[in-house]
Amino acid sequence: MSHTDPAPEAGVEPAPAPSPAPLPVVAPLPPAPRIERRRARAPHGTRGHIRALRFTLSTLLLLAVLYTIVVIKVLLIPLVLAAFLGVALNPIVALGARCHLPRWLSASLLMVALMGGIGAGATALAQPALGWFHDAPAALRNFVPKLKGITRPLEAASRATQSLVNGQVAVRVQPPRQASVAVTAWDVLAAAPKVLAAVLTVTLLVFFFLIYGDDLLRRLVEIIPSFHHKRHAVSIVRSIQTEVSHYILITTLINMTLGAVTAFMLWLLHVPDPLLWGSIAMIANFIPYVGAITTATILLLVGMMNFRELTQALLPALVFASITVVEGNLVTPMILGRRMRVSPVAILIWLLLWGFLWGIPGALLAVPMLTSAKLIAERVPNWRWFALMVQR
User: Fold this and answer.
1) Burial class (CB in 10 A: 0-12, 13-18, 19+), 180
2) What is the pLDDT of residue 261?
3) Are the beta carbons of 298 and 273 closer than 8 angstroms?
4) Is 284 in contact with 292 (CB distance < 8 Å)?
5) Burial of 212: CB neighbours in 10 Å, binned 0-12, 13-18, 19+
6) What's the predicted TM-score (pTM) here?
7) How far apart are CA 153 and CA 149, in angstroms?
8) Has residue 104 got a pLDDT over 70?
């Protein structure tokens, strides 16, 4: 038989439950020792050291990047050049795609047309260029007496001034005659394999960028996690692609027009081989300021070699300088607009930097790279200071 508790009797109240024990009173914690407070303030005191360390690491990283750019310039120069050409020519291929032409067909037709035009121009200009290289030593020997005829009055004035100051007649010392250095056609053709390899590399890269460039950008955008950032990245890429292609195409057309006008004016002035000098002016004008000065110097030498009178010899360089002034101060700002203009100081610094790193290819690519960097910095909040610094 199981044991059960007895039931409470009727009319008897149950005993009250025992009250809980009171909680113990906790004494307040004593103030933190002075050592702990110092330890809490220690990170604020090391901010200067952290900033100095960050600046040092950033400087070392920049130097490492510049060194890497110099070391692998043989790989980077064709890639950068092909990327800019692909961006510039992409609107033409996109126009063909809107006309229901496959991208590979539009790209193939465009590349065949470009290579045919460049090849025809190079073939037409190769013979005059080789002729000038071959005749350069004889032309320089004929140029020296003309230069002496121009500088003879200055030398006479200098000797007269020196005789008045020193009380004696200065004796002119003939400088030693230097041996002339001839540039043969073999020296030019010796570098042909490297040039052909570089041209073939850039051509293939441009062709594949035109065909698969949009797919590559689409896959890069797919890597971005959030939809908002994807939409922002697509907007930035499309706007930069449109504006950079617009800048490159307009600049190329302006330079081609400059070369054509220069060749026509030189033909009117009876300068030999005007197409050659017009082509040099067109290519050199991709390097702002430096290219115009170089072309004017070349035309000055060509005028001195081919004309006897000083006025007629200076006329080709003066005409080209006038054309360049009109192009740089009126035509280009009016077509490109203020938004695409860059500060001359920034252009010169950029030219010095990339000319030092990559040589002549770096000088040719400096302004397109600076313009692209400015367009990117305008759309990235943390880099807008760079766009303000380089803007004109």
Assistant:
1) exposed
2) 93
3) no
4) yes
5) middle
6) 0.69
7) 8
8) yes
For residue 139, is pLDDT > 70?
Answer: no
- SS3 (DSSP) at 340: coil
- Residues 121 and 107: their CA atoms lie apart, in Å, by 21
Of 234, 239, 315, the closest CA to residue 271 belongs to: 315
CA 312 – CA 325 distance, rounded (Å): 21
Instruction: Kindly report the backbone phi and psi dihedral angles of residue 391, in degrees, each rounded to the nearest multiple of 5, phi listed first.
Output: -75, 145
Rg (CA), the chain: 37
Question: Which of 73-77, 86-90, 177-181, 213-217 has the lowest average pLDDT?
Answer: 177-181
Residues 6+ apart with CB under 8 A from 312: 269, 303
Between residues 201 and 27, which one has the greater pLDDT?
A: 201
Q: How many CB atoms lie within 10 A of CB 97?
A: 14
SS3 246: helix
Alpha-carbon span 227 to 215, nearest angstrom: 18
For residue 203, give the amino acid letter. T
Q: Would you say 293 and 279 are in contact if contact means Cβ atoms under 8 Å apart?
A: no
Q: What is the separation, in whole angstroms, between the first and last Cα of the chain?
A: 107
